[in-house]
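User: Second chain of the day. Same drill as before.
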Amino acid sequence: MTEPGSPDYAKQKFYDAVYALIGTATIDRRLTSAASYLMLVQSRDLPVALRGDFENLLRKLTRIPLSSETGLPASAHIGRGCCKTRQSDP
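Assistant: Same format as last time:
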């Protein structure tokens, strides 16, 4: 296992994030899982040329708090039809 703070650790976390995205879970869970791996990376562990873009990505990932139900930002549920109520049986 690689140590936090090393370039190999950052590389592994990016690999883990990509692997999470191609998994079989719902897209909500895949995106949340991928983001959680990226949150473990420190910009200082990346090449200088990538640090600004990575810090920008982290700001975007943390701008809106995640909902507790799906891991998606709470605003993502509004008007998207993803939170339909279950109809009761007649």
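The chain has three helices and no strands.

User: Great, on to the next one.
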